[in-house]
Amino acid sequence: VDASQDCNVATFVVGPQPFSGRSWNVRVTQYSCNDESSPGGPPGCLQYFTEPTGVISSFNFPSNEKNANTFGTPTHLSNQMYTSCFRRNTNKCSICFTPTYTGGAIESFGVSESTIKNGPGSGSGSDCTGDYIVINGARQPDESHLSAIENSNRLCGSILHTLRKKKVSTTICTEDTPFRISFKTDDDENTLGKTQSTNEVKGTPSGTVGFSLSY
């Protein structure tokens, strides 16, 4: 969280009913702004990943493959709007993301309803208005850097792809720096429809599982 020069106030809302006997221990660590070598990373980054490879997940997602296949159906959080950043390592000019889990009990990308009526499908651009991730300069590995200019930065649906209505996830790469992913969700889910394109909880993967991406 970018700190104010004045007093910073933290407010915790845990539910509509008053509770007694609850307490929190809050640890605050301050980092210098504009210092990408510090654990805090660049300004505006809620998370900062410094290792050259790893996994980034939405906060709801199970932390390992065993749990991912037995957890049931994870549901991503509402009203999210944050950015996760990645340190650019020496001699590395791009970063790529691919779904961590595919073909199991759940897939590891599903952030909105499908773009295909009766099956999982990818969304991009104008499809992505409620819940989506943003990868600036998104492209597939076999596309040129110039192709990323024509692709949308917004990606959604229940399949990860730069193009819409795709049925199989792909790897997404970018040369845009600083390396980052943003995640935005609204305050509700579409659950009244009878097909995967109108109901986010229908099908596998559903449009509510969130994401887990290896980079």
TrEMBL record:
Residues 192-215 have a biased composition (Polar residues). It comes from the Eukaryota. This is Putative LOC100646249 [Bombus terrestris]. Pfam families: CUB_animal. Keywords: Disulfide bond. Residues 45-215 form the CUB domain. It comes from Lepeophtheirus salmonis. Residues 186-215 are annotated as: Disordered.
